[in-house]
Amino acid sequence: MQLKPLAALLSMSFGLAAAGGATAAVTDQMIETSAKSGQEVLSWGLGTQGQRYSALKQINTGNAAKLVPAWAFSFGGEKQRGQESQPLIHNGKMFVTASYSRIFALDAATGKKLWKYEHRLPEGIMPCCDVVNRGAALYDNLVIFATLDAQLVALDQNTGDVVWKEKVDDYAAGYSATAAPIIADGLLLTGVSGGEFGVVGRVEARDPRTGKMVWTRPTVEGHMGYRWDKDGKKIENGVSGTPGKSWPGDLWKTGGAATWLGGTYDPKTGLAYFGAGNPAPWNSHLRQGDNLFSCSTVAIDVKTGQIKWHYQGTPNDGWDFDGVNEFVTFDMDGKRMGGKADRNGFFYSIDANNGQLANAFPFVKKITWATGIDLKTGRPNFVAENRPGDPTAAADGKKGNSVFSAPSFLGGKNQMPMAYSPDTKLFYVPANEWGMEIWNEPIAYKKGAAYLGAGFTIKTLNDDYIGALRAMDPKTGKIVWEVKNGAPLWGGVLTTAGNLVFWGTPEGWLKAADAKTGKVVWQFQTGSGVVAPPVSWQQNGEQYISVVSGWGGAVPLWGGDVAKKVNYLEQGGMVWVFKLPK
């Protein structure tokens, strides 16, 4: 397909706009305003802060029981797998990505397909945890998304034509990309996937109109950051951290810390917040030290590409407790704060300006790797005997001592984004109660090969439930209410000014509950497991709720005993949209 010059496309769109037919160009101001009004969905997280809160209240606890389907759309194709995408809605169009690096533009009122782009994937891609895609970004007249072969593609919103395409990195080395990009102060921010293959995590900032690089910031200590001047010249921009301080030997060169879930951005602080994943390999005895910036939230000044602060949840991680989970900014006690429900089972309330820890507490019932978080130092109180052992110390030199760990490496919370309501001042966290047997094995780095050095089996902890949607008070750590679920929760959450919380289950239900009490007031069977976050918008005076349905993701691939327990669930690929009947 021939790439059309952006200027020509913009000229074309302005001409159509004069005739009343084109998309209004998306701006930073529109993205910020839409998060407050709820009229459109212009960003992953419903706003760059990631609160997933809609100000709409036409649908509320009094009438939610009357919700009915408005339309549904099938992604089609022979293969489906997991569908983790959050739709975007602008100017009457829905933009939704699907498995295998596909994206669709649909009429948001009727579900009519306007166009489809299907990325041509090469043989040999190496996604760790299913062929998912979590969504796109909108800017100007473009819709931009990442692909499994580690590319970024920008399409014209009206036609689906490719405007620009840029390679992020080498998929043959284990790099991939699954997260939704975000827009921050006119920049397109993206991360990378591939922590299980010894890649080096980083955050990249690009010009969203052209795809050209502005700066890049590695999330493994010792690697150089870069910026590009107006002429495209690459300039050194300082090493991340202090070389050699927290990584032994040369392990930092293949250190992992992938930024695979993407990030958030708060215009009030001017900072982007990206989580960094597990250090590589999983064998923690090889990596004596904290291994910055793995398992951390990294706050980056978007104007300079410099790390302003970091907070590390699991230093010297030995359990695959990726720190990628979203950092959601909110106001508490007159301060701009950030909330994070970490994969390691602890919820953190952190000052969004300087990274100072305010509080940390469990959001799951069983944690074995640490007894708690020291609020003075911010560091976990490790349980030494519950760390997987050195395999070379074993009699056969092939398997370290096996330990039982909770949560499992699939996390107290994983990719499924939580929501925050400024009305109730509660976070709504999709939590999971499970554990694992884990042990270390000898490992050496080989480009493009799995770089784990561990074996594991996921175990259930309770007979009656694994997942639980929990309303958490970020100030006190109290679980205000919970709704338990038989299968693990793997889809995200939406909360609204109508005093509602929406979330989906692997069993196929999209549910709505009273945000204050947790009483379920509505549910609908979507036909396949929901592992995606719902959204809401308003069109022609009516409020809509939408969610993508399609079972998959990491659980059926890596879930051990849990995967066997839910192997009856069927795959799918649908967008469902609901509204109140007239």
Automatic annotation (TrEMBL):
<keyword id="KW-0732">Signal</keyword>
<keyword id="KW-0560">Oxidoreductase</keyword>
<dbReference type="GO" id="GO:0070968">
    <property type="term" value="F:pyrroloquinoline quinone binding"/>
</dbReference>
<feature type="binding site">
    <location>
        <position position="84"/>
    </location>
    <ligand>
        <name>pyrroloquinoline quinone</name>
    </ligand>
</feature>
<feature type="disulfide bond">
    <location>
        <begin position="128"/>
        <end position="129"/>
    </location>
</feature>
<dbReference type="InterPro" id="IPR017512">
    <property type="entry name" value="PQQ_MeOH/EtOH_DH"/>
</dbReference>
<dbReference type="Pfam" id="PF01011">
    <property type="entry name" value="PQQ"/>
</dbReference>
<feature type="binding site">
    <location>
        <position position="278"/>
    </location>
    <ligand>
        <name>Ca(2+)</name>
    </ligand>
</feature>
<keyword id="KW-0479">Metal-binding</keyword>
<feature type="binding site">
    <location>
        <position position="320"/>
    </location>
    <ligand>
        <name>Ca(2+)</name>
    </ligand>
</feature>
<feature type="binding site">
    <location>
        <position position="134"/>
    </location>
    <ligand>
        <name>pyrroloquinoline quinone</name>
    </ligand>
</feature>
<dbReference type="InterPro" id="IPR011047">
    <property type="entry name" value="Quinoprotein_ADH-like_sf"/>
</dbReference>
<feature type="binding site">
    <location>
        <position position="196"/>
    </location>
    <ligand>
        <name>Ca(2+)</name>
    </ligand>
</feature>
<feature type="binding site">
    <location>
        <position position="259"/>
    </location>
    <ligand>
        <name>pyrroloquinoline quinone</name>
    </ligand>
</feature>
<feature type="domain" description="Pyrrolo-quinoline quinone repeat">
    <location>
        <begin position="44"/>
        <end position="356"/>
    </location>
</feature>
<keyword id="KW-1015">Disulfide bond</keyword>
<comment type="similarity">
    <text>Belongs to the bacterial PQQ dehydrogenase family.</text>
</comment>
<dbReference type="GO" id="GO:0016614">
    <property type="term" value="F:oxidoreductase activity, acting on CH-OH group of donors"/>
</dbReference>
<feature type="binding site">
    <location>
        <position position="178"/>
    </location>
    <ligand>
        <name>pyrroloquinoline quinone</name>
    </ligand>
</feature>
<dbReference type="GO" id="GO:0016020">
    <property type="term" value="C:membrane"/>
</dbReference>
<protein>
    <submittedName>
        <fullName>Alcohol dehydrogenase (Cytochrome c)</fullName>
    </submittedName>
</protein>
<dbReference type="InterPro" id="IPR018391">
    <property type="entry name" value="PQQ_b-propeller_rpt"/>
</dbReference>
<feature type="active site" description="Proton acceptor">
    <location>
        <position position="320"/>
    </location>
</feature>
<dbReference type="GO" id="GO:0005509">
    <property type="term" value="F:calcium ion binding"/>
</dbReference>
<keyword id="KW-0634">PQQ</keyword>
<keyword id="KW-0106">Calcium</keyword>
<dbReference type="InterPro" id="IPR034119">
    <property type="entry name" value="ADHI"/>
</dbReference>
<feature type="domain" description="Pyrrolo-quinoline quinone repeat">
    <location>
        <begin position="466"/>
        <end position="545"/>
    </location>
</feature>
<dbReference type="InterPro" id="IPR002372">
    <property type="entry name" value="PQQ_rpt_dom"/>
</dbReference>
<feature type="signal peptide">
    <location>
        <begin position="1"/>
        <end position="24"/>
    </location>
</feature>
